[in-house]
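Example 3.
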Amino acid sequence: MNLRLSPQTLIVLDAFLDQAEEWKYGYDLSRVTGLKSGTLYPILMRLAERRLLETAWEAGEPGRPPRHMYRFTPEGLRFTRANAPSRSTGNLGKVALELGPR
Amino acid sequence: MGTPRNLAARLLTAVLRYAPPESREWASAMLRELDFIEGDWPAFFWALGSAAAIARHAASNWKSWNSNKKQTEEEKMNSTGKKAAGVASGAGLALLLAFAGMGMVQFIGFMIPGLENLHWPHFLGAIIVPEIVFVVSAILLWRKRPPVAVGILLMGAAIGVHVAVHFAMR
């Protein structure tokens, strides 16, 4: 799969690895990763287009607008475990720092 | 609702309205998140970043659509060019064969005196044999190289009509 694993993408993938089965929201991801919406959403879009993430609208309480949420597809989880150095191997931060901003 | 948040909501609503269909879901997602952002200025900067992300997404989709369209047009032009070249080469081959047939008739007439006064060797060498060759080769080539077969048939028909008119006039 042709996916550029920038340091920011690695950080987002790492955030998804935390309780990978659970749905996550855009703003929560932004707070966890420290990425601004202009950086985070293009990454989410790319991951969703490559079917590494699945997206859904949360059926919220009546009167509240639905919220968009994201989580790994099985393929996304496999890809991340195979390609992205994760917190499970304990070297994500190191790799992201070594790659540096592009 | 403070002014920056108000501006943010207006900006993202406008983005949602004018976003291309493939970016609309994302624009809507960014707008919904606005309700969960604490603070007016963070909401404003969220909206700015989101608008930039949608603009980039729309631009990259437009770019890929445009390059796909260009590629399809080039493929179409290449395909038309190849067909035209096939028809031209078929017609050229047929013309060569016709000239060869007529040359052979002339040569035989030169080698065997008296034969040039007869009509049937001319018919045979200039029409019947070349036309049979044209039809057979067109049938054989029809599946593999249809443009070449069409070229041969077209030239064969033109030569046949020309020779028939020539003999009829005489």
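Chain A is about 50% helix and 15% strand. Strands of chain A lie at 24-25, 53-58, 67-72.
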